[in-house]
Amino acid sequence: MAEFLSPLLNLFPEGLRELILILIQIMLVVMPLVIAVAYTTYAERKVIGYMQVRIGPNRVGPIGLFQPFADVFKLMFKEIIIPSAANKFIFFTAPVIILFAALVAWAVVPFDDGWVIADVNAGLLYVLAVGAAGVYGVILAGWASNSKYALLGGLRSAAHKIAYELAMGFALVGVLMASQSLNLQDIVRAQSGSVLHWYWLPLLPMFVVYFISGVAETNRAPFDIAEGESEIVAGFHVEYSGMGFVLFMLAEYASMILISALTAIMFLGGWLSPFQGTFLEAAFAWIPGIIWMFAKIAVLLFLFIWFRATFPRYRYDQIMRLGWKVLIPVTLVWIVVEGVAVYFKLGPWFA
Description:
Elements: H1 2-9, H2 14-51, H3 67-76, H4 88-104, H5 123-144, H6 148-179, H7 184-189, H8 204-217, H9 229-232, H10 242-267, H11 289-310, H12 316-343
Helix pairs in contact: 2-10, 2-11, 3-10, 4-5, 4-10, 5-6, 6-8, 6-12, 8-10, 8-12, 10-11
């Protein structure tokens, strides 16, 4: 990245070049991410519309392509109403915390070989730590609103996020054992060879557990008990309007894209071509790795949308039982199985 931007960086004093490089890299990630969030909402409405034999957005722009911008402009000019008894400082801080947790994790996400803002050796640990910080924003939003519905939503979210964070953490222990590295780029490189070298095959239960836990972590249906409109209206963000509400939605969809990206990196070979190691490898060698990465993210995002259109919301006790009594035991058992495979150097994944 630095080599690519060197002509531009040479225009600045030497002391400022590193800071300018970091700012440019952040903008190159954040700006496309915001656009991706906007069009993920559009894709969701279109896909669910077709699944339910409807058309979806089709009025603003060609086939409704400008609908996300219309939504943003509408919400920008809506009145921000603050509950009279709310803690105003925490009320405004909570959505910023959630959005911050959803965005800063992208610092260690590689889009291609060498295309990463911060190539840190503890990238996997960093992602886990930052991802866990988002729950504070949810709890604070529920408490600061001084509303029973919002507080119930915050408490529900805290309980189920803890359960599914544990399942996600144990699933990533399996990836760590297989790759022998916490660096996300090294994890992808360890999967090179072919589709059968990717970790989805030896770690299939971990793959399923991680993705299901990711759906739950982002408060998406069928795990959206924190904002169950039939029970507690909109849950923890029921008192938010205007740009405060926008920040919650931006964080939710950015988290969806992040979970999809991390799933692609951990289990689906990241930027690696699915034709690697086959007779078609040369025919598709011209496609850059970042395109394969985006394609895998798009497929996983489609699953998020598909789940929402298909499954009814689980009861609170069902979600807790799934997290504590099914997903966590599955990961613990598979860690033992994988430990045996690593000891006997079962190839090609653990050799």
